[in-house]
Amino acid sequence: MIKVTDVNKSFDQFKALTDLNLHVNKGSIYGLVGTNGAGKTTIIKHITGIVCPDSGQITIDGEAVFDNRQIKQRMGFIPDDLFFFSTYNLKEMSKFYKNLYPNWNAQRYAHMVTQFGLSENRKLARFSKGMQKQAAFVLIMSSMPDYLILDEPIDGLDPIVRKLVWKYIVEDVAEREMTVLVSSHNLKELEGICDSIGILSKGHMVMERDLDELKSDVHKIQVAYKNKPSEPYKQLNVLHREARGTVDLLIVRDKREFVEQIILAGEPVLFDMLPLSLEEIFIYELGGVDNEIQNIIF
Ligand SMILES: Nc1ncnc2c1ncn2[C@@H]1O[C@H](COP(=O)(O)OP(=O)(O)OP(=O)(O)O)[C@@H](O)[C@H]1O
């Protein structure tokens, strides 16, 4: 389990992380989402033991991560800004990884190189950005990590390669309980793959939930009344409300049964309850928190 407890981090006078808590269960896929500059890369650098917090704890399986060689050997990390030795090709880089990671799997490496269609002899610096990401993925997945940390891994990859990347990840989660934390702006893709979601805003966790639970608790509803009761939505937790003619469109965060009970009590002539996508939940949740976002989208 990855556990981040009350982490604070400032760069000079700027507070990048504030009392941040985050939990990733073993064998699960956790999607970390947030606006630009929310602190995703910063917390990922803490979890990978690159940066030390000003206060708070970061543990993996109960052990502190910072300066912990054993934990790092079991961890695979693909950063947003990739690093390869400038003169190395993939074959040379694989030898470097083999020495670093005790669980290096040569068979898997050979298979993945073929499957991704990468040249082992061309200098990595000559690869396109997308090919460099693929090379990083092949190397990391061949090191058989127990913990896989990915900072915007799929951006810049073509759809066929993205499918292949997710296939490997899902298989390793299912077959050997690999634990995955992935940050991305591609909410549609995260929605199809993650078990839990953490939404970051301005350095703190706005919400961390099981994805199915989160989706079952936020609803888009359309309501119209012939005789509208006064303040019909007073008891509901309304994230957003707008009127379209006589129809009210609301985004509500409450249990489905409770919403139904409150709305039906007013005897509406129209009542529809629709599911929300993760993208919509993200926008409405952050719209409530972040005035800048609210001004842009509403
Ligand atoms: N080393 C540093 N020195 C000063 N400020 C920093 C440093 N690292 C991060 N920050 C600041 O911390 C904030 C969070 O940055 P971070 O890169 O973690 O955001 P992010 O959520 O990953 O953003 P994006 O989605 O744009 O990649 C930003 O305001 C950034 O300028």
From TrEMBL:
Domain named ABC transporter: which ranges?
2-227
UniProt xrefs under SUPFAM superfamilies:
P-loop containing nucleoside triphosphate hydrolases
For whether the record's keyword set contains Signal, the answer is no
InterPro entries the UniProt entry points to:
AAA+_ATPase, ABC_transporter-like_ATP-bd, ABC_Transporter_VariousFunc, P-loop_NTPase
Q: Does the keyword Transport apply?
A: yes
- The superkingdom of the source organism is Bacteria
Sorted keywords for this record are: ATP-binding, Nucleotide-binding, Transport
Signal peptide range: none
Q: Which CDD domains match?
A: ABC_DR_subfamily_A
Tell me, what is one Gene Ontology molecular-function annotation carried by this entry?
A: ATP hydrolysis activity
Q: What is this protein called?
A: ABC transporter ATP-binding protein
Q: Which organism is it from?
A: Aminipila butyrica
